[in-house]
Amino acid sequence: MLKAVQILNWSSGLTIITQRLTKTRNSSSLKLSTFSSPPRRILPLNPTRMSSSQPGSDPLPKSPAFVSVQSSGAVRKIKFCQLCGGTTKHEIPDGEEKLRAICTHCGRIAYQNPKMVVGCLIEHEGKVLLCKRNIQPSHGLWTLPAGYLEVGESAAEGAMRETWEEAGATVEVISPFAQLDIPLIGQTYVIFLARLKNLDFAPGPESIECRLFGLEEIPFDSLAFSSIYVTLNLYLEDLKKGKVKFHYGTINKRPGSSPSDIRAFTLDYHLQP
Amino acid sequence: MLKAVQILNWSSGLTIITQRLTKTRNSSSLKLSTFSSPPRRILPLNPTRMSSSQPGSDPLPKSPAFVSVQSSGAVRKIKFCQLCGGTTKHEIPDGEEKLRAICTHCGRIAYQNPKMVVGCLIEHEGKVLLCKRNIQPSHGLWTLPAGYLEVGESAAEGAMRETWEEAGATVEVISPFAQLDIPLIGQTYVIFLARLKNLDFAPGPESIECRLFGLEEIPFDSLAFSSIYVTLNLYLEDLKKGKVKFHYGTINKRPGSSPSDIRAFTLDYHLQP
Fold first, then answer.
1. Do residue B244 and residue A273 have CB atoms under 8 angstroms apart?
2. I need a labelling partner for A75 at 20 to 30 A (CA). Which of A191, A235, B49, B264 fits?
3. Which chain B residue has its CA at the smallest distance from A270's CA?
4. 8 A C-beta contact, residue B64 and residue B50
5. Is the CB of residue A120 less than 8 Å from the CB of residue A194?
6. Percentage of chain B modeled with pLDDT above 70
7. Are strands B187-196 and B142-143 parallel, antiparallel or unpaired?
8. What values do phi and psi take at B262, rounded to 5?
């Protein structure tokens, strides 16, 4: 069975393509009840090898065909080797399953891996700190202070650094709150609960404004990204339940939806410790 | 105050350098009591700006000097632009604080970001599944099935894929168990608790052997990486306490220690939800 998945040109520069996706396991997909998107399940598909270990039983899928949704366009954009300057060829290397850019001169493979976006959900006297973006994408919309993790820092350190850069706020990280993967754009959000060390904060160059919002005031109609929408909803739901927990989940954008529709997604694999 | 930090040539190809590190916040460093490494604290250092918001109080650090431990050698290895083939210059771009490789032809900056290593801690009837590595580094030593996350898959999907590739095992992810950052080598381990869907497993090309170990049998003296050592210790400690929880932490290799000494580290920022 094949499933058409549209790769959206969201904020990562991926080109729009349609790719066949095969999967072979049940997803423990959970949908946040307050979200507007319909449930989506990743179904067990196309076993490529059958198990013979259970005589008499139905054949079980043995080899999951793990084919991730990936834009070959992004790989094909890599035309030169960073190290030697040689031109690349685009092939699936021996023993691998994915198209890679391989240097025709030195043989180096240019792997591409997801990036971590680290940020803080800052609580202060029943309010949360949000920043209005002064940069694209989502200029003028509200977000948590967050940005790409750098080599040489931990996720907690990166989250505090981004909070300083975007909100001029000095914070203390309290606990991990969420890991939200967005496979479509090769990003993983890692959000920590944090508290202000003092009340000094002010927008950095990437922010127009920084403000503490009461929980009833959070501008859900003017948030910058699905990941922020999910994070704040999970936080409010936890508060209602009386206990803030850690959340793992995958944000799958609904095929065909607009990049600006931050509610057009499902939260799959929503797992908690 | 300055702190010398040695960058080790561990498993990432980073060159050995000594770099000055300034930090300005208190670390909530917790050390696992069963570990052999001494406690290490990241101390508040060199505030670069003083706050005047609290008249009469001691000056407070206002601007944390977030300088991550990064090898400039890795950046300097990038000599050509992947997209246009232009030569790079190595400079700190306007508005940034880190050395980057910038294309002299098209102006593109080649950012380098940490990679996520995703894997499974597979529980089966009081035993855990380990793989003996058939590749370098750490050939012949034991590890959890784990590997680099690919663009287009979630961390949970990547962990299941790696488990299939390295152990031939079909698993179901149950819950997130740990996120362990290793800033020194630009890696973050994301480990899930998982269970076998059936008892079929067999070593893939990257493994010599795969085996279920009773908790008393875990080969702690023959583990491949500090991250695996930490993960299994946290798991055993949780079991002793009667509740398996999610752990966030930073593994900081002890300066000057050998790459092969997987116990020469501290677990800093050990946080739990």
1. yes
2. A191
3. B175
4. no
5. yes
6. 74
7. unpaired
8. -75, -5
The CA distance from B242 to A148, in Å, is 36
Q: What are phi and psi of A74, to 5 degrees?
A: -65, -40
Give the domain ranges of chain B. 70-112, 115-271
Q: What's the pLDDT score for residue B6?
A: 26
Q: Which residue of B has its CA nearest to A53?
A: B200
B190 touches chain A (CB under 8 A): yes
Task: State residue B98's pLDDT score.
Answer: 87
Which comes out higher in pLDDT, residue B79 or A70? B79
Assign B33 to helix, strand or coil.
coil
Confirm or reject CATH 3.90.79.10 for domain B115-271, answering yes or no: yes
Among partner residues A68, A150, A184, which is closest to B68 by beta-carbon distance? A150
A154·B181 Cβ contact <8 A: yes
Provide the CATH topology of domain B70-112: Ubiquitin Ligase Nedd4; Chain: W; (2.20.70)
Shortest Cα distance from A175 to chain B (angstroms)?
5
Residue B257 has what pLDDT?
Answer: 84
Class of domain A78-112: mainly beta
Q: Do B177 and B193 meet the contact criterion of CB atoms below 8 Å apart?
A: yes
Contacts B61 to A, Cβ<8 Å: 170
Q: Which residues does chain B have within 8 Å of residue A241's beta carbon, measured at their own beta carbons?
A: none
**Which residues are paired to A212 by β-bridges?**
A129
Please compute the mean of the pLDDT values over residues B95-99 and round it to a whole number. Answer: 85
Q: Which residues of A touch B155 (CB under 8 A)?
A: 179, 181, 188, 248
Instruction: Find out whether B128 and B211 touch, Cβ atoms under 8 Å.
Output: no
Q: Which residues contact B80 (CB under 8 A, 6 or more apart)?
A: A80, A81, A82, A83, A84, A85, B86, B87, B88
Q: Which residues of B touch A60 (CB under 8 A)?
A: 197-198
Range scoring the smallest mean pLDDT among A25-34, A207-216, A264-273: A25-34
Pull the structure tokens for residue B192: 């899930």
pLDDT tens by residue, B56-77: 333 333 455 665 555 667 899 9
Q: How far apart are CA B101 and CA B153, in angstroms?
A: 28
pLDDT tens-digit series, residues B122-148? 999 999 999 999 999 999 999 999 999
Asked if the Cβ–Cβ distance from B186 to A98 is below 8 Å, we say: no
* A77: pLDDT strictly greater than 90: yes
Q: Is B56 left (phi over 0), alpha (psi -120 to 50) or beta?
A: left
A contacts of B110 (beta carbons < 8 Å):
82
Rounded to the nearest 10°, the torsion over CA A213, A215, A217, A218 is 80
* Segment (H or E) for A90: strand A88-91
Q: Taking a contact as any Cβ pair under 8 Å apart, which residues of chain B between 41 and 100 contact chain A?
A: 51, 53-54, 60-64, 66, 68-71, 74, 77-85, 87, 95, 98
Q: Which residues of A touch B116 (CB under 8 A)?
A: 113-114, 116, 188
The nearest CA of chain B is from the CA of A222 a distance in Å of 27
Do the Cβ atoms of A114 and B68 come within 8 Å? no
